[in-house]
């Protein structure tokens, strides 16, 4: 009997386990698991480009093209195209496009015919873009309609170098990269540079006759190498007639040679000093030697861009049958033409290219009747993306003067300011009063 009861209990347990219903499915949990996962980062870098007759509009279109790539990252190409009109109104044509994008680096700024071409790398704030898309009902819960070529992958992440802070800072990090077009412009600029060769301000007891002969032969060398040289007589006349003007304008803050170079629109000035010696031997034989020092400076900044010295030894003395004076003149001219100028010319070319790549070409911008500081700050925020840098020289109630470092000609720089002020109600009437050399004088129009 006990065995029968035990068997019955076992059978009851077996059937109860078999017939137990499956656990209830948590629909809410499954729904949560099925929710699309964000497949894009909060921010991502894109290349953008724009073209327009206005430089400012070309820049804006470059930003828009980068943001458009970000939108396609989030919702896919087909959905972006289907919502184009809405996106144009609420995002692409928005005056607040800068809220969604930041420039990393300009890669091209060019003018083709009547149109400006502007390209760069931009950081698009995808999280902010997605928020606007959701607010306008274009997406919900991070959905994406189709896959595109811009889909985010982990390969786009930048590897973190833990020792990066220990690495030396490179010129590229400090000065930024230049575009191919800017590099071409620099080469052309160097080839078209104007030179002033003049007496050194250093006191040397030497007959000016020999130094003038050295300056003349230095100019011959420059001209034979395709450069423009300012005539010594022109520089001498400017110095003679404007000594008081020089003192009033500069107060001696720059050398008179640099001031003359700036007034004559020279890009580089070269100072020459030296000494000559001569001797006479029986039979009408005359010999001369020369010891020459030269220094070259960038006219706009006064920076040294070349320095060469050469001392002619007796063993290489110049010979003349005319006179000792003629032998000394041949000596200094021979040293300058064959020994000094080739070296300093090479130094100038290399150093000027390097300095312009890093710093840009120095221009001066004068604004008459300047606006308040807030408007000026707004102006420079618009301008600084197209220039290398700028420094305040002086400021008064009537006038403000800046040194602006820029790669391009003076007309290009003038257009940068016109494009910047075009969208500023405070300065939309600003116009150029005078353009001379490397200086632009604007009137604010206020």
Number of strands: 14
Low-pLDDT regions: 27-36, 145-166
Q: Main beta sheet, described? A: 6 strands, mixed
Q: Assign the structural class, choosing from mainly alpha, mainly beta, alpha/beta, alpha+beta, or little secondary structure.
A: alpha+beta
Number of helices: 15
Q: Using the alpha-carbon principal axes, give the shape.
A: elongated
Helix and strand pattern: HHEHHHEEHHHEHEHHHEEEEHEHEEHEE
N-to-C span: 117 Å
> Roughly what fraction of the amino acids lie in strands?
25-35%
Oligomeric organization of the protein chains? single chain
What is the percent of helical residues? 40-55%
Mean pLDDT: 81
Radius of gyration, CA atoms, in whole angstroms: 36 Å
Key phrases:
446 residues; alpha+beta; five-stranded mixed β-sheet
Brief summary:
The chain contains 15 helices and 14 strands. With 446 residues, it is of the alpha+beta class.
Structure description:
It contains 15 helices and 14 strands. The protein is α+β, with helices and mostly antiparallel strands and 446 residues long. Strands 4, 5, 6, 7, 8 and 9 form a six-stranded mixed sheet that branches. A hairpin with a 5-residue loop joins β7 and β8. The radius of gyration is 36 Å and the shape is elongated. Residues 27-36 and 145-166 have low confidence and may be disordered.
């Amino acid at each position: 009997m006990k065995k029968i009861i035990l068997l019955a209990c076992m059978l009851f347990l077996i059937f109860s386990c078999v017939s137990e219903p499956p656990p209830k499915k948590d629909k809410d949990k499954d729904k949560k698991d099925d929710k699309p996962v964000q497949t894009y980062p909060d921010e991502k870098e894109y290349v953008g480009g724009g073209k327009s007759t206005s430089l400012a509009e070309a820049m804006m279109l470059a930003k828009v093209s980068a943001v458009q790539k970000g939108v396609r990252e989030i919702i896919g190409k087909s959905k972006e195209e289907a919502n184009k009109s809405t996106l144009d109104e609420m995002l692409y044509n928005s005056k607040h496009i800068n809220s969604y994008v930041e420039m990393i680096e300009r890669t091209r700024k060019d003018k083709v015919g009547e149109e400006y071409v502007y390209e760069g790398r931009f950081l698009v704030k995808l999280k902010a873009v997605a928020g606007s898309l959701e607010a306008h009902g274009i997406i919900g819960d991070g959905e994406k309609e189709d896959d595109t070529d811009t889909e985010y992958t982990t390969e786009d992440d930048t590897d973190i170098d833990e020792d990066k802070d220990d690495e030396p800072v490179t010129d590229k990090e400090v000065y930024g990269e230049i575009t191919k077009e800017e590099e071409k412009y620099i080469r052309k600029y160097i080839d078209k540079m104007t030179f002033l060769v003049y007496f050194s301000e250093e006191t040397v007891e030497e007959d000016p006759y020999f130094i003038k002969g050295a300056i003349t032969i230095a100019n011959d060398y420059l001209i034979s190498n395709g450069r423009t040289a300012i005539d010594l007589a022109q520089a001498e006349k400017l110095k003679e007639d404007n000594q008081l003007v020089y003192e009033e304008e500069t107060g001696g803050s720059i050398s008179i040679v640099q001031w003359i170079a700036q007034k004559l629109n020279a890009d580089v000035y070269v100072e020459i000093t030296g000494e000559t010696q001569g001797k006479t031997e029986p039979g009408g034989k005359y010999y001369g030697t020369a010891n020459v020092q030269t220094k070259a400076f960038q006219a706009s900044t006064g920076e040294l861009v070349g320095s060469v010295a050469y001392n002619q030894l007796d063993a290489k003395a110049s010979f003349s049958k005319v006179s000792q004076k003629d032998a000394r003149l041949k000596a200094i001219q021979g040293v300058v033409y064959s020994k000094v100028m080739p070296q300093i010319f090479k130094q100038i070319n290399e150093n000027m290219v390097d300095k312009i790549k890093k710093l840009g070409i120095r221009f001066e911008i004068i604004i008459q009747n300047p606006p308040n500081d807030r408007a000026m700050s707004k102006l420079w925020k618009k301008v600084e993306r197209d220039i290398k840098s700028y420094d305040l020289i002086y400021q008064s109630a009537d006038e403000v003067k800046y040194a602006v470092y820029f790669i391009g000609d003076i007309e290009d720089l003038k257009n940068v300011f016109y494009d910047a002020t075009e969208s500023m109600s405070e300065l939309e009437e600003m116009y150029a009063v005078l353009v001379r050399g490397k200086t632009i004088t604007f009137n604010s129009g206020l």
